[in-house]
Amino acid sequence: MAETGTRIRRHTKLSVVGAGSVGTAVAYACLLRGSADAIALFDTNSAKVRAEVLDLNHGTQFAPSCRIEGSDDIAVTAGSDLIVVTAGAKQHPGQSRLDLAAANVALTRDLTPGLLSVSPDAVIVFVSNPVDIVTRAAIAATGVSDGRIFGSGTVLDSGRLRYLLAHRADVAVENVHAFVVGEHGDSEVALWSSATIGGVPVESFAVDGRPVFGPDTRAELFEEVVRSAYEIIRGKGATNLAIGLSSARIVEAVLRNQRRVLAVSTLQTGRHGLQDVCLSLPTVVDARGAHTVLEVPLSPEEEAGLATSAATLRDVQSSLGL
């Protein structure tokens, strides 16, 4: 416990599972942003995790106060308020996220019960790909279906779309509101019908009387969103910096009980007719996890695209016995 004047503030502990490029980016982003009071890094590669913890600790004097530790023993994660799981097989150039499914589902089934055994009250956020399938596997392996286990989903995809819209409209990205939903992958869907720039619907946004985002432009931008991860992987081997920052936003929504609406991947229970599949829709995230899926109006095309995305994920689930 920490005392500030007459207020008592509880220390918060974040654990990051996986000391690869994504896990270390998550830990680094959370350190810089002051997302948690303590960060634990867990990886079975003892030399790697020790090196990353040492590197992070050397920079703590230049960041908000945070205690950082790490180990190849899962006990280092004990007592976590929130656990971010990034461990798993790496996506290679030309490989889809769904190609990783079997290996990462097997890892998830083994790992998740162990994490909950030492942190029974923790919220667990999966970032490992394919995140929707991995999240479904974790829920199935533990029976925790109350929203305490969810995936990072299309939070980053939504960020990519907002960046492209802001760049094309020449406005600050904070003034753009748009969601990508469904699978975090090739079948994801952009919700153009509810996207706005400064309160103006994207589909009618104009400069000097000329529409900026006609059908062809929208299609071009969305294709860039879908293919951007592949481009980054081809160029540098992995996507890590933006997912580190977007994960920090999710971490803060939980640890600070912010009640943010984020496009995270949760087990669907009837919204838009979807059930028994994990995919992303705008969802309230707070200290309890991800628990309230909003009723976002969808155009007929968006409704159909979301149904197709869900069917794609169900086919993979079935092939893996989920």
Please write out the topology.
Blueprint: E1 2-4, E2 7-9, E3 13-17, H1 21-33, E4 38-42, H2 46-58, E5 67-71, E6 82-85, H3 101-118, E7 123-126, H4 131-142, E8 149-151, H5 155-169, E9 176-177, E10 180-181, E11 189-190, E12 196-197, E13 200-201, E14 206-207, E15 210-211, H6 215-236, H7 241-255, E16 260-269, E17 275-286, E18 289-293, H8 300-319
Parallel strand pairs: 3-4, 3-6, 4-5, 6-7, 7-8
Antiparallel strand pairs: 1-2, 9-12, 10-11, 12-13, 14-15, 16-17, 17-18
Helix pairs in contact: 1-7, 3-4, 5-6
The counted number of beta strands is 18
CATH A-level architecture of the largest domain: Alpha-Beta Complex
CATH topology of the largest domain: L-2-Hydroxyisocaproate Dehydrogenase, Chain A, domain 2
Helix content: 25-40%
SS field, number of helical segments? 8
Q: Indicate the low-confidence ranges by residue numbers.
A: 1-6
Class of the largest domain, according to the CATH hierarchy?
A: Alpha Beta
**SSE-based structural type:** alpha/beta
Strand portion, in percent? 15-25%
Biggest sheet details: 6 strands, parallel
Radius of gyration: 19 Å
What characteristic shape results from the CA principal axes? globular
Give the strand line-up of the largest sheet. 5-4-3-6-7-8
- By CATH, the superfamily of the largest domain comes out as Lactate dehydrogenase/glycoside hydrolase, family 4, C-terminal
Terminal residue distance: 41 Å
Average pLDDT number: 94
Number of discrete domains: 2
The SSE string, one letter per element, is EEEHEHEEHEHEHEEEEEEEHHEEEH
Pathway: Fermentation; pyruvate fermentation to lactate; (S)-lactate from pyruvate: step 1/1
Subcellular location: Cytoplasm
Protein name: L-lactate dehydrogenase
Domain Lactate/malate dehydrogenase N-terminal: 12-151
